[in-house]
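Priority: medium. Attachment 1 of 2:
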């Protein structure tokens, strides 16, 4: 069952050099209880997608041009600020890459977590120390009684990320969006944070949208994957299918570039993602694709569901009919 449906989402930014479509007509869904990985190179629109789900695209430059984001039968893009605030942090919460910029430096850990916790409690003045200590204990934080009185700068990067996770889970959300939450951490701490998220997903059936560059994390954590490229989705399938039977040449390229597939030299996908300011006819990946055909440079392919739970947007698997890119 889908818990969140993103339909034909298009997000633009006005910049000094013109208007760009950072997310260009994408559709996908998040199923109840799953971890969905979103992968793609830098600038592919992963963060813009996650900010859109939180309805946090900032105007006047940023704009959700069209589309719907359906949660509990309602389009959250149409909600009033007050209604969206109720959903944010309680039903859908977000963990960002750099906790230092998301935590408030002048508040203690207790105050920050309590700010989120009390939004939905009956008595906003109540002392919630006991409950918050319990949550920190669940996150394997040693001496939580001391930690709650500390300020962010007194904590290590891994500990700050745990505090962010605590803030994200205090209200038992249905959905957590984690935008590269471990990129700034060392490998051991990264492993700990990932297993915490895995536990949360298992224990409370929280659906997680996990954004990362790291296909190793996808293999370990996610059940399904969405591959983004230059604001579009090129492939969407189960993780097993993704690694066993990737269809899009871009997905194959990403998998080949994994350090585990090191064969004496580093495999990379040659070329760069074309700038969003460049107007491209046809498939956005055509300029780098090893299997490019004439039609790829002329016309956009459509998204095709080739089997259950496996969609791909590529002329190799396309008859020109179906949903557009
Ligand atoms: N506030 C903004 N103003 C102008 N352009 C923006 C803004 N935010 C994002 N963009 C543009 O939208 C595109 C997608 O950005 P986004 O941050 O979603 O990429 P990403 O996939 O998250 O990349 P990364 O892996 O580097 O985090 C980029 O080309 C970026 O320059
Ligand atoms: Mg990003």
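Attachment 2 of 2:
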């Amino acid at each position: 069952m889908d818990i969140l449906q993103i339909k034909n989402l298009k997000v633009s930014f006005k910049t000094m050099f013109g208007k760009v479509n950072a997310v260009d007509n994408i559709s996908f869904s998040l199923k109840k209880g799953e971890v969905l990985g979103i992968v793609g190179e830098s600038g592919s629109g992963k963060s813009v997608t996650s900010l859109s789900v939180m309805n946090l695209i900032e105007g006047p430059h940023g704009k959700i041009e069209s589309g719907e984001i359906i949660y509990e039968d309602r389009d959250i893009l149409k909600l009033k600020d007050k209604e969206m605030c109720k959903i944010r942090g309680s039903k859908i919460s977000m963990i960002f890459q750099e906790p230092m910029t998301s935590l408030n430096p002048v508040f203690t850990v207790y105050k920050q977590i309590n700010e989120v916790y009390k939004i939905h409690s009956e008595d906003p003045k109540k002392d919630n120390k006991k409950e918050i200590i319990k949550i920190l204990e669940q996150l394997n934080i040693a001496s939580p009684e001391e930690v709650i009185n500390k300020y962010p700068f007194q904590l290590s990067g891994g500990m700050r990320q745990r505090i962010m996770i605590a803030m994200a889970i205090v209200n038992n959300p249905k959905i957590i969006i984690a935008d590269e939450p471990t990129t700034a951490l060392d490998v051991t701490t990264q492993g700990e944070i990932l297993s915490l998220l895995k536990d949360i997903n298992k224990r409370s059936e929280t659906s997680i949208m996990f954004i990362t560059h790291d296909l190793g994390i996808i293999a370990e954590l996610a059940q399904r994957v969405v591959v983004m490229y230059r604001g579009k989705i090129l492939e969407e399938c189960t993780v097993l299918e993704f690694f066993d039977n990737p269809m899009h040449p871009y997905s194959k390229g990403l998998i080949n570039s994994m350090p585990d597939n090191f064969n004496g030299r580093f495999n990379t996908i040659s070329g760069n993602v074309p700038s969003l300011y460049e107007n491209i006819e046809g498939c956005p990946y055509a300029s780098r694709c090893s299997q490019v055909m004439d039609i790829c440079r002329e016309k956009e392919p459509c998204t095709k569901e080739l089997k259950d739970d496996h969609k791909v947007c590529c002329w190799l698997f396309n008859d020109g009919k179906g949903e557009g890119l």
